[in-house]
Specification:
This protein is of the alpha+beta class and 345 residues long. It has two domains: 7-82, no CATH class; 104-205 and 219-337, Hypothetical protein af1432 (Orthogonal Bundle). Helices cover 52% and strands 6% of the residues. The strands form two sheets. A four-stranded antiparallel sheet has the order 3-6-4-5. The protein is elongated.
């Protein structure tokens, strides 16, 4: 039998650490007759968790009803070691994470990142408004969660990807940019948080129109090949305008993330104060996200090394923002990094 530790009240003390009390909402996201995880029931007569059924085992109609009843009573559990399995189901109904108080912050962050990666990949394959809408809804779930406690963003910062694809880069930039924005914003208004999150996630949307062979090239780009990449900020703006989601923060993020403080960036060669605060935040977040990830032509840099390089490039990036990022890692406020790439795979 499972769960034989000392009891507190009528529950073993170790239940919350080793098991997860499943909610009706999440149970409903599973296949009805073949649960994808092992199920456990709490036996009040002997105060232990006992196995109920093994994953993928077909349930009878009577067992389906009993499982629902156990769940309603708060006596149905799954092992937290199966988190990677049940999170694959929750990602398709991300708003469930806001309805379930049994999920830990780390589990919610994992699930949110999985959902964003899935939705962004779908959008990347078909960048149209109908496919953008589910991605937008999931971003709003993340921002609603962060509004409950802005320091939850630290849990996301510990889960930056180190491998590269369009979705990973977008998510890394969103997380890093939101962390910077929350660190440097005195009044966090819900509407501003929503807009910043979506703007940061979609900042590089123009790159979806760049041929894949250029992005995966292992050697230096030829001048004519580079010319195909340079217009991507403008392409991104036009794509968003076509979808009628071109609010100010999104336009700035798309248009200005490649601008640099000394005027050496593109596409407008803006300089210093000509670059908006949104543009400056996105530039730091975008470059940091690119630096720490593996590319076909180089390895990803250590996170602290990358942050130090940005802080040392005062002529290129906003010095205050780059220093805030570096201090966050050096101070230990962000904490131990998690291998999110392995978790995703």
């Amino acid at each position: 039998m499972a769960g034989t530790a000392r009891t507190e009240g009528n529950r073993p003390q170790n239940i919350d650490e080793e098991y997860y009390q499943i909610s009706a909402e999440i149970l409903s996201s599973f296949p009805k007759y073949r649960p994808p995880v092992d199920l456990f029931r709490f036996r009040e007569d002997i105060l232990v968790l006992a196995p109920y059924c093994r994953k993928e085992m077909r349930l009878t109609n009577e067992q389906v009803e009993e499982v629902a009843a156990l769940c309603a009573e708060g006596n149905l559990f799954v092992s937290r070691s199966d988190h990677h399995i049940y999170s694959r189901h929750i990602v398709k109904q991300l708003d469930l994470v806001l309805q379930d108080s049994n999920l830990k912050d780390s589990e919610i962050a994992d699930i949110c990142i999985r959902a964003l990666h899935m939705r962004y990949c779908e959008f990347g394959e078909q960048p149209v408004k109908a496919v953008l809408d589910p991605l937008y809804r999931d971003v709003m779930v993340v921002t609603e969660y962060l509004r409950g406690d802005k320091y939850r963003i630290n849990t996301f910062m510990r889960r930056l990807f180190r491998k590269n694809d369009a979705a990973r880069h977008a998510i890394n930039t969103m997380i890093t940019g939101l962390w910077l924005w929350l660190q440097t914003t005195s009044e966090v208004r819900p509407k501003d948080l929503d807009r910043m999150a979506l703007a940061l996630l979609l900042h590089d949307v123009g790159m979806l129109k760049v041929p894949a062979f250029l992005l995966n090239k292992t050697g230096p780009l030829k001048p004519d090949e580079r010319e195909k990449i340079l217009p991507h900020p403008i392409v991104g703006v036009k794509l968003m305008q076509k979808m009628d989601v071109a609010f100010e923060e999104l336009l700035r993020a798309c248009f200005e993330h490649q601008e640099r403080m000394d005027g050496s960036g593109y596409p407008q060669r803006l300089k210093g104060s000509q670059i908006s605060r949104v543009g400056r935040i996105t530039a730091v977040a975008d470059s940091f996200a690119a630096m720490i990830c593996e590319r076909p032509y180089r390895k990803g840099k250590d996170i602290v090394v990358a942050a130090k390089e940005l802080a040392g490039s005062q002529n290129l990036y906003d010095h205050e923002l780059a220093n805030v990022l570096l201090t966050g890692f050096l101070s230990g406020n962000i904490g131990q990094m998690v291998d999110m790439d392995s978790a995703l795979e």
